[in-house]
Amino acid sequence: MTAIAVAGCTPSAEESSGGGEIVWAIGGARSQPGGANQLIAELWNENNPDSPVRIEVLPEAADAAREQQALVLQAEGAEFDVLGLDVVWTGEYVENGWIQDLSDLRTDLDGAILPGPMESSSWAGDLWAVPLNTNTGVLYYRTDLVDAAPETWEELCSAAAGLSAQGIGGFAGQGARYEGFVVNWLEMYWSAGGDLYNEDQTESVFDVDVATEVTDFMRGSVADGCFTAGYNTSMEEESRIAFQSGDASFMRNWPGPYSLIENDPESPANGVTAISGLPGFDGNAGVSAIGGFNNAVSAFSENAEAAKDFVVWAATSPEAQNILVEAATLPVLASIYEEETSDTILGQLGEVLTTARARPAVPAWSAISLEIQDTIFRAVNGEMESREAAEQLSAYLDTTVAE
């Protein structure tokens, strides 16, 4: 995604109701010196000298950042006040008693923040974090090869079949055995009308028939060439290279590769790349998964009130959220997208985000992801029957519901 300057109000940060330093433990490139998170902290500090934010920079890799937070939280340490959480960590942190219930902040957030990020901050009907930034899966396509984005996966494969006669590959996605595959499969499953849990995660509503249909489709698409060669070993970077080099006519990826393609004059996709929401199945609209970071307040914080003020401000301040936009990162504040038109990249991404969904923030998500990789991935690659894989996954999900 290109770094787009977005016009908006730039009010001063509101003064915190607490006092003392707020330690914000968060990882990722944006938390490094000069990064967007550092700039957000500096903006807060200008107006809240009695409650300044200091970033405790965690590792960029999500697993390593979580491990560092967990070491402090397991010891009930008060070193951290605000915790930057990957969107799939919420349920685990709640079950471990590591974060505070923030349901009393809903009135400040509902309507102002995009619904998908709000969903990712909730567990069992309560709010446990406040969204900071988001991300979403999108479909890339070549406007010199197709007139419009396909609305269904069947249309995409039909177009890919026609292009294969010209020596151009079809769809590039994240088909390797890792979390990216899980996200790709979930997006298709959601887009066929399936779901994993009811609203408060107290019951699995997994649909074996829908899961079988989607898995069979993916398996057939690998076999017949709709999905590009090497799909089952591709992650985000391999997918980008395939599309950027002209070896794929469609790609599912996050917004990041857009600016790389647009800045590569040697790429066959340069100047002819467009994005849209993902295709759907059986008359259902496509659904994209969201990523990003949310801010939670540590259960052991000794400066919780000021920490709550900060996390709400970071989510709802146009000035703070525009810092993310300048860093080519998707904000969560709905009004920023409303100011954009449909012919801008940010405006188009805003449209995708209105229907984007979060992976369920259940405590067992890491284990569920591994189960999908052990069943659905094997079925897509011909090592297991699709229905058998779906039935095994369904039985496993029944064991993971919230109490």
From TrEMBL:
Transport in keyword set: yes
Stated family: Belongs to the bacterial solute-binding protein 1 family.
UniProtKB keywords: Signal, Transport
InterPro entries for the chain: SBP
Name of the protein in question: ABC transporter substrate-binding protein
Organismal lineage: Bacteria, Bacillati, Actinomycetota, Actinomycetes, Micrococcales
Keyword Signal in record: yes
